[in-house]
Amino acid sequence: MNRFVTAERALRNAAPHRLVEALRDVLRSEYTAESVELLMADYGLTVLQPVSAQFPATESMAMHGTTAGRAFGAQDPVVEETGDLTRAHLPVTVRGDRLGVLTVTLPSATAAEILPELVDIAGVLGHEMLVAERDTDVYLQARRRDRLTLAAEMQWQLLPGRSCARPEYALGAQLEPAYTIFGDNFDWSAGPDRLMLYITNGMGEGIEASLLTNLGINALRNARRAGIPIEDQAALADQAVYAHYRGACYLSVLLLDFELSTGRVKVVDAGSPQMMRMRGRTVEAVDFDAQLPLGMFEETDYVAQEIDVQPGDRLVFVSDGVYSVAAPEGETYGEKALAKAIAATRLLPAAEVPRAVLRELSDHRGGPTAEDDALVVCLDWFGRQPGS
Fold this sequence. Notes:
The protein is α+β, with helices and mostly antiparallel strands. The chain is 34% helix and 29% strand. The chain starts with a helix and ends in a 7-residue tail after the last strand.
């Protein structure tokens, strides 16, 4: 039997919590690997942590300044030579969602020949992990550098992922503070002809903010999955939030519906999230007709407006926890500083941009601790090629 098929079958047949052990056994027997380790990116995207039976993990590896971290950031295999052995660091990524790094140590004599197969095996491992997470907490635990608050647990479980890529676009997103997030959220759904994207800023703190966001996002998903246009999605979610809170709490959300073939975008601006656009080297805010947040009043009607995106455009969406953050001297971050931070990321892929912008925000704030949720989502638009 082909050794790649053997590895793939071993992963598919392994118990959900034993994927790494099953892969280690087959790589040792079929590929003469000396060691195999899976490192998961933590929620804050600051360290890589080993998947092991021990929780929390006793060892972690910094994302910056390490070989494995370079493989994660570049999304390419990175190889180290140590005597007669080669250590290969392989990104574990599923449809653009970056999960971690598979590190395999093997004899240098065979490394170059089998490296392409190991890259494919890392991809299979990522798919199997996502399936296995329905039945085990092992891989979710490995992502935790610290304990999540209950509100943060609810928010992370609500998210679709942290990055996504298709020929027409690439998406990346990050929340801060990762382990104590309250009400900020993002959601997306890719179809054959459309991409729908929501940027959400829920009012309040702690579990109440998380409950509000959960209600709003699930109401939007329910309407979206019924095939309803985004202006009516907003109206139905508005009714759901108002029916429960009677106007005492409301949800700010920016809804976007991208037509993949043309770049036309329908937008409903119902609250505080903002959008910046980088076209060429010019970064500017894109303003929409402001409408009421979801749930503020009963039976609010929403109207969608249209814009166009062009191949090469970069769109960056932020919550008020980004543009309203004050420095120790009292100066708010603001549109000018945000535009400068976005311009500085022009050479980074979309998945790296949110983390880079949030680092700039931390410097402005004067410390790593955020008093309010901060959300950054980046979308690079490539457009659909003729005949694709």
